[in-house]
Fold each of these.
Amino acid sequence: MRRLLAAMKKEMLLLVRDRMGLGILFVMPMVLIFVMTLIQDAAFRTLDEQGIPIVIVNNDQDSLGNRIEQGLRNSDLCLFHNEVDGQPATEDNIVNAVKEGKFVIGIVIPEGATQAIVDNVGTIVSASIGMDELPTNDTETAEIIIVIDPVATKSFVTSVTSQLREYISSVRTRIMFETFDKEIAEIIPDDMREEGTNYDVKPAITYKQEYASELTGEVKPNAVQHNVPAWTIFAMFFIVIPVVSSVMKEKNEGTVFRFHTIPASYLLQSNAKLIVFVIVCMLQFILMLSIGLIFLPMLGLPVLNLGNSYLGIGVVALACSFAATGYGILIGTLFSTQQQGAILGSLSILVFSALGGIWIPSYIMPDMMRSISELSPLHWALDGFYALFLRGEGLREVVPHALKLFTFFLGCIALTLIVRRVQKNQ
Amino acid sequence: MESTSVIEVSGITKSYKGAEFPAVDNLSFTISKNETFGLLGPNGAGKTTTISMLCGLFHPTNGTVKVNGEDLRSNLSKVKSDLGIVPQDIALYPTLTGRENLEFYGAMYGVEKQELKKRINTWLNKLEMNKSADKLVESYSGGMKRRINLIAGVLHNPRILFLDEPTVGVDVQSRAAIMEHLNELNASGVTIIYTSHHLEEAEKFCSDVAIIDQGKIIARGKPSSLISENVGCTNLEDVFLKLTKTALRD
């Protein structure tokens, strides 16, 4: 035990005095989380259809215009604006504003839109009670103009137009009842009618949305929910570089010569390295989570939601730490120079991370790439954190992810021992 | 001097993959207890390969090595604590202090904490390294690194000490200090196996030498006997040049 502690102390001292290594381990991922989250925030909002900026010109200033304005103002779907660069939005300036990317959609509600509905409904009601003829198709209609940025997703445009249709329909229905009421009032004497009918009655059919897991859909993937775990995993796997450097230095500086003649097993040395670097990975993990919990919200970004299972988070993080360190030890053993190990180690992590959905979430990858991403250990870890953070799952659900990562770690260590045996016999 | 063999080498050969000739070719010799045995030879003669096999770093392709009667291949872990190694390369961590390096290696050899502290201080004083012990090794001169490298190999009081060119690249003062303390160690009963290109140093220090070339022992005996056996030679360097010729080696 004393030998193990001495070897761990040595590893810790070497790491603390390696400023470049510390930079790679702690500063680089912190910068990546800040930069990538800020850059991707807008893209994720579009992708997730949350808080997308839209601008409205309400020239109607009547029931329909006010209903649309109020509805979109209260909607989670978009961020409501009625000004462009501090000036009231107009039919003229919103086209350019959308073209310049300031808004994804611009809506112009024309003057007299409500009156057009009133006229239309009035004619229909009069016709239905035999007082007038049905309106012909060439009757004048008010036209709502929707200006769309080509980058807007089809589903978002459909959602907005559906909402508009719903608002128009509800206003039209209300006007229709009011008109009926008025027409009937002219036919039936006042004393036979009930005064002040409220047509805003509870709808006969409602719908209830249920989510398959516990977080009831309130927490949706956003830039923070993706980038914090993603870049944390990336940073944890980038521990390959300092691990390779540590293994290589010992090989090249002759210390390995003394190790092999010491009455302590090579496994003791490897275990000390493993324990220290796993501790470092866990520290990285805590630091990166704190960025998502404390610092990103200070920049106006959403706070990282950790889900319900701290134990699950700990298990996936620990499995990820072992997998990353084991991979580093394997790479350090496989190659004969630090340059080879560092280059191939970092390149392989870049490839694993790209495939694993770190850069771009795998759920927006093509089917074939999504299947390939299943092979990346970084994907197993990210999927584990998605399960915990986004789907609100618990320890039991992430055990398969953790097992995959631990198996990967054991595979790396087994391969390391084989490679070492072959190298020793050469 | 007792004549008990502490190391028995029987027909060891080491062939590296892809090499045309074996680095060490069928060597057999014994080293007696308390001897200062010099393994001398030009570059590429097979000295470091031989030392590496004697201290169990790797196994010979053929042949056996016995240390204190134990076969090294099957009982390596049993004999390891009897062996001390001072490798040719500085086997120290540059970003640790001299003391931290010594504490680490001492602990690896299982020396008890308080005893280790005492031994480290004793050796640092002996080799005049106490003032620099808490500085990083990367800031040391070549001689200082060599002295710490030596201490790291002897902290656990080994019975057999392997020294692979321990004084290479050091100044006269450091070399004198190192050799003085090696003599002290030998006087205290430590068997020393030593390689060097400093033949004058070897002549003074070694009780027995073997000259090795192209993986084979070409001469073996006390330095004085080898000098007298080779007509026209007045020192070990003359003997060495006579036997290994003057052609430059890779």
Note: Chain A has two domains: 2-45+222-425, 51-187.
Amino acid sequence: MRVISFAQPGFMLAGAVIVTYLSAEVGFWAAAVLSVLAVSLLALGVERVAIRPMVGRPVFAIAIITLGLDVVIRVVANGFIGLDVRQVGDPWKLDTVSVLGVEVQQRYLAMFAAALLMVAALFLFFRYTRFGLAMRAASFDQEAALAQGVSVSGVFAVSWAMAGGLAAVAGIMFGAGTSIDQNIWIIALKALPAIILGGLDSLAGAVAGGLAIGLFESLVSSYQSDHLPWLGENFATVSPYVLMLAVLLLRPYGLFGTREVERV
Amino acid sequence: MLSVRNLEVVYHDVALVLRGVSLTVPRHRVVALLGANGAGKTTLLRAVSGLLDVHDGRVTKGGVELGGRPIHGLGPERVVRRGVRQVMEGRRIFAELTVEENLRIGAHTAPRALGDNLARVYGLFPRLKALASRTAGYLSGGEQQMLAVGRALMSDPELLLLDEPSLGLAPRLVQQIKEIIAQINDQGTTILLVEQNASMALSVADHGYVLESGRIVMDRPAAELLEDDDIREFYLGLGAEGAARSFRDVKHYKRRKRWLS
């Protein structure tokens, strides 16, 4: 089932919110682990209730359901945030280290390390483990995967749990060291141009796409007001989507996405 | 080993495709199931392997037993664990994955014996070993068919269901597939072979069934079927005297009608 889940921003927000409540009680790290587990369970439940009955239905219908799920999860999570900003625990404070002469906040390095770790773990998982291979097979041809003895419903459940857990990690790492408010899900929305730019089914593409989108947005926000003032203020916010459109015109499958494997 | 009793299968609650099919596949034998397009051959295999659900099909009567235990209510992954593997029509390999990854997915239910089974499959298909790290979708048709069969052997099944392994292959490759089927059978795997290529199927099988419009119309040892006049005419394309014959000379529909009664 090749569906983009639009529920990721919701899961990300939920992950961050749970940490804001728990970190005062059990400390940041324990709260982070608990939050990832809780959001994975939440995603598992969501899959069971809302997605499983839709197996075999049009992809478009399922994508719209994930949009609805996103709204529901966000509304509930926002209820817990309230109108104020909430502090996520802060293991790094504002400490900085000097990397090649550039002062960098430690929390940014931690974010970067977490991203690298997740990507490496996912790469190894999909490449070498039995279940990772089964997931790739099921995404390619469900019936053929069933005939190999793969439990496709199990694959669905695990992939949702993984997606939820990873979104929670993203939310926590984003919030760590600062505070969150009701609008941080906008960050998660930028994942969309990042993965489309990189190619939807490519892990390396997601990394490259993320970096490209991030760099592009930063550059635009720094220089656009000097060089292209007629574009107006805050053009940087929409720049990722502009870049995505430009890339899609040239390479519809993204930078690293697989072209359909086809013999001619 | 496998026994199908009075099996009735309905698709979408309305289309009755199998109307009381019974057949048995004895252990260590090759049984061929012949029939024209739409006769219900693939449906029968799906009923055995548990893949009916995917196509909104249901067993409404009768049942399938493997070694005396009913398996027609089980999901496909449970049937695979019982030692039954289906090689689907049209090969259905995972085109975007490499050859070796395809084989490893075939071993999903038997991860411990992965090394042994991989060695065995590479022994049967040396060509696959040479292509191990290639993207499966770019293999030739014959190589893809070998991969599909090899993938099914990766869990060391007791019963192999082959759905039209000769489909779209050149005559020499069909001959090769036939030899491979005999070889797999020699290694102790029971085989139910569904084919449109009747001469190939009957030359490798011990016993043959002919399925027509959801009913078994013939059930004889393969050697007898090869000699049967009707089989020779309708499936082997040979006239009564062994010569090609014009359709104008034969009241085709009358001959068929006699079978259905």
Note: The longest helix of chain B spans residues 171-186.
